[in-house]
Every structure is written in structure tokens, then in C-alpha cells.
Amino acid sequence: MPDTSALATAAPAARSSPRLSRAAPFVVAGLAAVALWIAPLALDTFAVNVLTRSMIYAMLAVTVDLLWGFAGVLTFGQAAFFGVGAYAAAMALTYLGADPVWMVAALGLAVLAPAVLGLAVGWLSFYHRSTALYASVISLVVPIVVVQLIYSGGEWTGSSSGLVGFDVLPLELEGFFRLAALALVALTLAAWIFVRSDAGRALVAVRDNDARCAYLGLSPKRIQIALTTALAGVAGLAGFLFANASSVVAPENAGFLFGTELVIWVALGGRGTLLGPILGTIAIDYLAANLSGDLPFLWQLLLGATFVAVIILLPGGLADLARRAWGATPFSGRAAFAPALAALPARPAPDASGAPLLKIEGLAKSYGALTVLENIDLEIRAGELVSLVGPNGAGKTTLMRCLSDGTEDFRGQVSIGGASTAGLTPNRIVALGVGRKFQVASVFESLSVADCLLLARASNDGLSPFGRAETLALPQAALDVMRMTGLDQMLALPTRLLSHGQKQALELAMVVALEPRLILLDEPTAGLTKAERSTIGAVLKTLTGELGIAAVLVEHDLDFVRQISSRIVVLHQGRLVLDGGVDEVVGSELVRTIYSGGSHG
Question: Which parts pass through the membrane (predicted)?
């Protein structure tokens, strides 16, 4: 085995992180809290009143930015959660009073009610095979439904007039300003810590490539539902603050129009930056309060025109303009960082003499009247490298999809280690010990090489929501891939800057990092140089020959197949027409006939 001491010391400069830089956000947050605490002394009553509301709205902008800017879910529904929280607090304070016990109950209800609603909305939005567009449409409907429920609530909700005059926290105007300011600073700091953490990388990964997340054993839908639920609770907290600070709640607080305004504010500020949406929301809301009275229609026209101009000219919002002028904003995400590499203890090789690791019985797949696969029977044991060959249209990639996704509509039976995959989503099949590499390298373009590998280990090791791992422990085989391709020296490099061959190697390292029992590879050498193909071939022979991993390889290059395979299976027009040894299959008359061009599936 190669020496890993060099790997363990790779990129020390990228890994070093002075304590001062780690403390900087807390210092900035502390200074901001102090400045906002004394701000009412220098502001008039109107400014204090408006900015209190603006800071509460900025809390909502943070939730929209986390969903849209980081997780890629465009949502108009945060207003509904805000309104539910505000109404829950107002109704509790109206009918129960503002004694300390009931105030705590009102706070709990204001957070819990929208969180429950958020859980329901998340489940509806992100069920299996749903799309981001579907989630956005659901978020459009929810505020409309909530407002209609408010209207139909009669005297309990105040109907179209809302609720007013209920008891609130015993604070003066300046006290509510300071409370809103501290809540905003705390939320911003917590969001900043989270998006820079290892768990925060999962949000970006889901946004970039949710399919790859699923094939790394993560559940994108579960992440999205959990995020929707948690941020609905945060929106409810903002609603509680708003109800107390204003002593009035109205249906428009939960409406579609307000939800749209939040999206506009986040877009103008710069989504995916945290600080941009906060400053944008406060500035726009404060300007609106000052100008809407004098220029009610012109102000809306100016805001709409500005929104269109920014979307066209500055897709990254005003924060992008600031970044170009002064460099990265302090809350724009996570700086270049690379952990130290380490080798995991070797696992014992699977027993190749036992029952088949992969067993396929009578597998058939059709698209309407078109039959793509028909009556496929195949067994593969540990340590075998079985190449799946055949002309274009033979059904090879379709077969790989059926093996890795039990929700595919196919007939027959597929089992991994004796466990049926029927009805299992890709992440649950990964848990059975299956890793899949796609024909086109499937990685996370917005993340670094180290982040991609960290996510590959997430289903085994978990992800911290508070910080970054100092050490990244990988199986020796994954470290070998990194070393042979030079990726061990590129851990902090953004993946989008890698060459095609390096991305292919990174995806293979990610799959190997799962420590699978079975690897499915769809043309892993497509577009690679001869040297890169040799490297991939050597890695595959090590995985199967020395580590006992089973591999199914889809490949067109028969010379490459001949060098590394233990068996070859030939698919033609959706049927398995030949299964045998390398020399037997490659030299057969049937294979020459299939590849002569006279017969394609």
C-alpha cells in the first residue's frame, strides 16, 4: 500500500485557521449588537418604529436566503409561516392574557404552529420525484390558503380586520427595537455558522446536484423537509416579535404579496450571501416607509424597475457589486479550507465463495409499447469485475438505473446481499452497499474537492452543523485514487475548475469513499486520455482483485474491457445474449456481428 504520510500533511496552508479569524464573526456580531443597542439614542421615534419592523422582516429574509440562496428552493411561503406565528401569538395573548406563563405559551405556539405547517408543506413539496418548480408552486398556494382561513375565522382571527389591542411584552418602543436587533444578530450569526459548517455544505450540494446526493446515501428530500420545517419555526418566531412590537396583526402579514416582496428583497440584496438580503431588506423597507406616503405609486414602479435591472445586470444582487469592489463579503459563505487526509482502517474483504452479492431475476423494463429490457437473469459475486457491453440502445444504462433505483417501474427481482431493492430509493440502496458512478462525471460544481469527499462520507460519519472537520478519513482505495490523479494536492480547489479527467477521478473517489460492496460504473473512461484510462483500470483491478468489491462496468472499449474484466456480459436489443469469460466473449462470432454495425438496439 502507498505511504499516506504525505497525504496526511497535504495542503497545510489551506488547513491552518488562526483563532483570530475564527473569533472574528463573534466579534463582529458583538459590535453590531452594541451598536444597535445604543442606536435608539440617536434615532427619532419614527425611525425606531420603522427599523424595528425592518429588522423583523430581515429575519424572514435570512430564512428565504437559506432556502433559495443556499438550498436552491425558490419559496414564496415564508410569509404564510410568519403570519401563522403572528396570529398564534396574537390569539393566545388576546384570549389567555399576557401573564408570564401565557407569554411563554404564546411564544411556543408561535414557533410550533408554523413548524407543523412547515412540516406538512415540506412533505407535500418534496415527495419522491417532485421538482423544484412543484415546490415553488406549493409555496405560492400556501399563503393564499392561510389568508382565506384567517378571513373565515370570524371573531377568533378578526377576519379581514385582523387582531388589535391585545396585551404584549412590557417593553417600550426602544425595548422592542433592541429585542428585534438582538434576535436578528443572533439569527444571522447562527445562520453564518451553519452555512460555513460541514452540514451547511449539504444544502449547497442539494442545490447543485440532488441526484448525486441520493447516490451518496443522503436523502435530499429529507434535508429539504427538515430545512423547511426549521425555517418555518424561525419565521414563526419573527411573527411573535412582530405581533408584540406592533400590537396588531392583519391578513396581509401572511399574504402572497408579502411573500413576493421578501423574494424581491433577497434578490436585490444578493441571495446566497446572508448579509446582502439583511441589508437589502432593511434599506428597502425603511425607504418604502419614507417614500410610499409621498410617492405611493412611483415608489412601487421604482422598486419593480430596480428589481428587473438587478436581475438582468447583477444576478448576484447588490452584494455581488460590493464583492467586486471590496472582495468577498464577510458572510458570503465558507473560505477555502482543506482538512488533513487520513486512512480508515481496512475492512475485511467479502467472501467471494458465498451467495451472489447481486442477483437479477427476470428483469424487464418497458416504456409504453417499447421494451428496453427483457428477461434479464444475472448473478455477480464479490471480487468479480463484470463488464456489460453492447451497442448503443442495447439497454445498458437502463439496466444500471434499475439496479440503483428500486422505485423504477420494472418487472422482476433485484437483490443485493439477499435483500430486495423493490421500492427502495437510491439513498436506501446505497445503504445496502451499492455505489454508482455516472457516465458524465456527477460532482458538486460549487464545492471544493474536500467538500465533495466529505459529503461522500456523510452517510457513514455524519456532518457537523457547527464547524468544519479538521481531518477527512477515507478508505485507502479512495486515497490511492486521489494520489494517482494529484487530487490530494487540490483539496481546497473548487470542483468546477477541475479538468474532465480529474472530475471523473473525483467521482470515482467519492463512490469508493462509501466503502461499497458493489460498484456500478457507467463508462468511467469516457473522454479520458490513455494515461488516465490506465489509472482508472488499475484502481478497478485493485478494488475487485485485492479488496473483494464487486463491480459492474458499462464500457464500449473492448480492449479496455479485455484488460480488466473477469467476465463479460453482452446485451443486445434489451436481452442478455452472452455471458462468459473474457477471451470467449471478445472472440465470439456473435459479438463481432453485433459490433459490425449491421444490428443496433
Answer: 23-43, 79-96, 102-124, 131-151, 176-195, 225-243, 263-288, 295-314
Domain count, the chain: 2
What CATH number corresponds to the domain at position 219? 1.10.3470
Residues 213/71, Cβ–Cβ less than 8 Å: no
The answer on 225 and 374 residing in a single domain is no
Q: Which of 558, 555, 526, 524 is nearest to 539 (CA)?
A: 524
Q: What domain range includes position 479?
A: 358-594
CA torsion, ordered 334, 340, 341, 347, to nearest 10 deg:
-100
CATH number at residue 564: 3.40.50.300
Sign of CA dihedral 544, 550, 553, 559: positive
The secondary structure of 331-358, three-state, reads CCCCCCCCCEEEECCCCCCCCCCCCCCE
Rg (CA), the chain: 28
The residue-averaged pLDDT of 334-352 equals 74
C-alpha cell at 498: 477541475
Please check whether residue 331 lies inside any domain of the structure. Answer: no
Are 536 and 435 contained in the same domain? yes
Is 10 part of any domain?
no
Is 348 part of any domain?
no
Give 366's strand partners.
371
Q: Of 275, 305, 326, which residue constitutes the final position of a domain?
A: 326
174 Ramachandran zone, left/alpha/beta (phi>0; psi -120 to 50): alpha
- 362 CB-near residues (< 8 Å, 6+ apart): 375, 376, 377, 411, 412, 413
Reading the block at residue 194, the C-alpha cell is 451553519
CB 569 within 8 A of CB 576: yes
Q: Do 310 and 363 lie in a common domain?
A: no
* Digit-coded pLDDT (tens) for 435-468: 999 988 899 999 999 999 999 999 989 999 988 8
Average pLDDT across the chain, whole number: 87
| pTM exceeding 0.85 | yes
Q: 320 and 410 in one domain?
A: no
pLDDT in tens, 40-60: 999 999 999 999 999 999 999
Same domain for 507 and 397: yes
DSSP 3-state of 307: helix
What integer pLDDT is reported at residue 333 of this predicted model? 44
Separation in Å, CA 185 to CA 32, 464, 521: 7, 22, 48
Cell of 293: 406616503
Interior CA angle at 593 toward 592 and 597, to 5°?
A: 100
Instruction: Cell numbers for 354, please give them.
Output: 458465498
Residue 362: phi, psi to the nearest 5? 60, 35
Q: Are residues 306 and 393 in the same domain?
A: no
Q: State whether 291 and 426 are in the same domain.
A: no
Q: Does 597 score more than 80 pLDDT?
A: no
Contact 576, 376 (CB under 8 A): yes
The DSSP symbol for 126 reads S
Per the CB < 8 A criterion, the answer to whether 447 and 494 are in contact is: yes
Same domain, 367 and 474: yes
Q: How much is the average pLDDT of 191-208?
A: 94
* Residue 42 in domain: yes
User: How far, in Å, CA of 417 to CA of 405, rounded?
Assistant: 16
